[in-house]
Amino acid sequence: MTAAANLAQANLKHEVADFKRRRIxxxxxxxxxxxxxxxxxxxxxxxRLDVTxxxxxxxYANKTELLxxxxxxxxxQSLAAIEPILMDxxxxxxxxxxxxVEAVLTIIFDFQEFIVVYEREEKNLDxxxxxxxxxxRSLFDHKLATLLEQGQLAKEFEIVDAVLTANTIGGMxxxxxxWYRSGxxxxxxxxxxxxxxxxxxxxxxxxxxxxxxxxxxxx
Amino acid sequence: MTAAANLAQANLKHEVADFKRRRIxxxxxxxxxxxxxxxxxxxxxxxRLDVTxxxxxxxYANKTELLxxxxxxxxxQSLAAIEPILMDxxxxxxxxxxxxVEAVLTIIFDFQEFIVVYEREEKNLDxxxxxxxxxxRSLFDHKLATLLEQGQLAKEFEIVDAVLTANTIGGMxxxxxxWYRSGxxxxxxxxxxxxxxxxxxxxxxxxxxxxxxxxxxxx
DNA sequence: CTACATGTTTACTTTCCAGTATGCAATTGA
DNA sequence: TCAATTGCATACTGGAAAGTAAACATGTAG
Lengths: 219, 219
Fold this sequence. Notes:
2 copies of one chain form a homodimer. Chain A contains 10 helices and no strands. Chain A has about 220 residues and is mostly helical. The first copy, chain A, folds into 2 domains: about 1-60, Orthogonal Bundle (Arc Repressor Mutant, subunit A); about 70-219, Tetracycline Repressor, domain 2, CATH 1.10.357. In chain A, helix 5 (about 95-110) runs parallel beside helix 8 (about 160-180). Chain A starts with a helix and ends with a helix. The relative contact order of chain A is 0.10. The interface of A and B includes residues 34, 36, 167 and 168 of A. Chain A binds a DNA duplex (30 and 30 nucleotides) through helix 3.
């Protein structure tokens, strides 16, 4: 076997391993979402994947390691999604805030179960794991607060307490994850545009800016 | 023993029994809040009260009955607190909404652990118990939406979707329960007045009405 | 003094599940 | 064709905790 082939095989193996981990995460997350972490047995997760319990242990050291991986997902995705938006200094603060809300809600719809599991099951993590994730979460809030302050400086927003307002906006988006059910009375677009409008109200954004952006979100 | 004395004794007994149930609820709620429902043993609850496990069974049929009683608390308190406010037709919609926010946040501070436990552990309830509580919760949202519609008719508010807005306002208040820690950087009054201001923004209330009420909340 | 009721405990059972030791089958390389 | 490694399963262990049976202590009534 050539070195190139060897490398190719090694990559494929890693890809397969990553894929298996992803599938374990997905099924575990689904069961944790529906039944709770403690009420979900590793046997039940294995059964959904048509494998056995020891198989799971070849990919995750133990049950909390699996929970940790699930809990990280939502916040890491959100941080990755907002980074380029926040960096785009060609756009106004209002524009960036609107795009941020849309991007984060998209993550929330796509990774809803992961996010809800984190919100509910955080206390089952090791202290080290929990702290790491909480730091990511703080970073998110901090970045959002910074955007709000920029908008305030630019006279686009009227905000009394940027930290508290950022926290509330984060909460408004997380709250969507906690109640949204696909097939409900509101479409995703309705929720995105309505949330965006409320976020704009909360930061005291100019009405003209708002309506154009909300309409854009409806597409 | 006279009939009157008999009755008095019976009442005292009930009061004592109620008190015992309340203390069990409080300690259980505290442990569920800190460790989660499944990770909390009945022995641990008993130990905090300096009694034994079978003692708990003389007051609660089983563990989920106890959880059910805890989960009911927050929503029942909230419903009771908002009822007189909503009924007060002498007050404007803005005024009633402000008082509602203050009243509900007071409940949220006083019964924080009960509320958080409900949010996290609802899935551990029987289907029957869960449905009953969810109906109370819907009733709350419905009453709030009705108030918003009244304010809209009175031209006090500008609202696109009263149901979604009521849901969001409920979420903003519940979110406080999920992150607030006494001894944090914000006082309760700061949180109440800031939340009230954001709620007023979200319903598009007139700025004049707002500031007077927010100031009143600061007392 | 006796019988009964009330309130609480001691001691037990039973079930369940995370984690593991061991074994086996298939693929790979020489 | 024969090791050897990889990838999984079978089968087990150990401990924990919900729920219960039965005893016990304290007071109450007759």
